[in-house]
Amino acid sequence: MKMNLRQADLLIRKELQGIYPPEEIRSLSLLVLTHCAGIPPVDIHSNPDQPVSESALAQINKIIDGLKIYKPVQYMMGTTQFYGLQLKVNEDVLIPRPETEELVHWILSDYSGTSFLRILDIGTGSGNIALALAKNLVSADVWATDNSAPALHLAKENARENGLMVHFVFSDILHAGSYSLPGQFDVIVSNPPYIPESEKNSLPRNVADFEPQQALFVPDDDPLIFYRKIISFAQIKLKQGGAVYVETHENFACEVADLFRKEGFLTAEIRKDINEKNRMVKASL
Fold first, then answer.
1. Which of 67, 113, 138, 220 has the smallest number of CB atoms closer than 10 Å to its CB?
2. What is the pLDDT of residue 178?
């Protein structure tokens, strides 16, 4: 069946009606059409009679089927945007969030114009944080670790495709082997797992059913496990005067900040995200 852009837009909206909120459906339709038809968003509104190829329509229908079972559209398209970068994503890595862009922006604001920084991203996933920092702090020596070989493989692909240099290392912050990374760092950043397992059923299905569990959840009886390990690591591997930046669960930001202070960090500052939730902590030695 032949369709133009207007008809394809109506198809997407009709098929997703009642599954997603109307505003989200509009956003999804625009995203799917621009990706599948290979055209800029403005063309969808300025040239709605432009025909959609059979191959593009087949891809649109496949994505609609996935969206009906709440599969993230980013996984189906295979790409997402993060801080001006086009990144590959798949089910081995979390989908980068706008809140994490705010964490990157905080670091860039603090270190803009600074030369010869050594930066470490712990639990890099798709490489989004490390690559955004490497792009915007061109003289920085950026390192990134993950305990998932498939995630590191994807992060390296993203580095190559964006022409950026990051040292990727297989390492698990929960085990002592992470201490073998060479030298000390001016900045350590991490968006670790922080959602208690008991909250899984309250998460949107596109997150709970499809994103990697090991990158999301922590035990209910030890929700700060990753922060304690990051702090122990930083006490050895962070330079004097350096800083640790972490993303946190909104309910644990104060506890994370207190943990840094109790372990000898001079300051621990909490910042809210775009939704006015306590989401980020910066701790300095």
1. 113
2. 65
